[in-house]
Records
---
Amino acid sequence: MEYEMPVTGTDIWYYYICPREVWLMKHQIAPDQEDEALEIGRFLSETYYARDKKELSIGHIVIDRIRQENGELVIGEVKKSSSYSKSARMQLLYYLDTLRQAGIEAKRELLFPKERKKEQVEWTEEARSELERAITDIRRIARMPVPPPPKKISFCGKCAYREYCWAEE
């Protein structure tokens, strides 16, 4: 029986932004831990939505927020900006799928505290198919002997791996 590499919500998030970053993380190459963007993310996670229970770990997922609302379980993912909402949406759907496989049904919402926005995320057959393709591709990327070549994108300026990709520029 072939071992299936675990995929995390973080893998899903970065897959939609930068496949190279997925490879770096899967190969346990740590980003700059003092990077401002990482520090802001930690601050937001610790500061906003204090009434909600914080981070819940289940297997290979870490859900930012979990609460009960009108007898229903609601899971939430906190992001500092809605700029990469597709990545955030797919990450949240991955969490939902993982919970469903464990027999847990939940509503889901993306939370953007700095923008004072909240977005409800819907589960569709199309989203399920896309998620399956992404998981397959993440595993393919992780098995590559070297990372995909760097590509300049708008996220590069905020990336904690930017020195790894662009140190010579």
---
Amino acid sequence: MTNAPSPGPRWSDVEVGAPDLAAAVLARFTAARHHVLATLSRDGSPRVWGTEVDHWRGDLLLGSMVMARKLDDLRRDPRFALHAHTGDGSMADGDAKVSGRAEVVTDEDVLAAYTADRHPPEPYVLVRLHPTAVVLTELDGERLRITSWRDGTGPRTVVR
């Protein structure tokens, strides 16, 4: 029996490799309930969805209704981009984005533990996000400070 290749890093890898960035980005995703998820439709055009994000046991997760089209998109092409709610528009806490590959969670033990801990409305599908890029854009006086993490590299900051 062979193991399927990993879809990529987990959120916990960002937390280890860029802890300050991971904490700031996670704060943006926990400051509001609704965020924007971009997927690719069957013809390759972008499609956006409102979604909620959960941080649980080292992962960023999305829950979905069983028949949701965003799920169809992610099963066909797992690439995603996720943009945190921008708050009051002041960018006081930054603008956070995560992109990568999504994986539908099928492990029954993980699903049972998640259901016991979080009590999501059932039936549901749990989606684990494997980040390949994390970006936080913040105001720094009159300039922008852009801190990013990419899979396989440490955090990098650019001021423009």
---
Amino acid sequence: MEDHGRIRVLLADDHRILREALRMVLATECEVIAEASDGEQAVATAARLKPQVVVMDIGMPGIGGLAAARRIAKAAPACKVLMLSQYDDEEYVLEALGDAGAAGYVVKTDAAAELLSAVRAVHSGRRYLSPTIAPIVLARLRNGGPSKASRTAGPTRREREVLKLIGEGATTKEVAQRLGISVKTAQAHRDNLKQKLDLRSTAAMVRYAIKHKLIRVD
């Protein structure tokens, strides 16, 4: 039975203490119907209980939040996924809202103050971005691509993860599986890295990963 219009929420985060804190923040307007501690559990629970909103950490064990969001979109299409992340890198945000199909993105440092507003927004069919990241993303979208500064800077956190896996011999498909992103997104990261770091081959990418100690060579 519906509880007087309270929003039915699934909380997915691998830190129990954070889940308890989020539950307390949400308690005034939401009914937390279940909790999950990893991506697979979040997908299975969302498919079974059909919550209205899933509040999900991006960096969980197993398949991770981005891959879980994509699976939830298939298993329970009516669920709105709100990503929670400690990362404010524009790559993570655009990946979550684009490729993973999330409806919103909240940075954990903003979570307590912003969470209810974010849940309300995505539940009513709107997109939501943490105030700290909204200007970054809007600037990126207005410019139609990465800023000149980000193109000439070193690799982002996500790009370093991709480089590390390539250095360990992973194919683009394996990179996608390991990071919980689509093959298309993994290939885009690979192409960006080649352009940004002027690396013309996979061998050059492996040498870069070794030189910058992204992988260990025994």
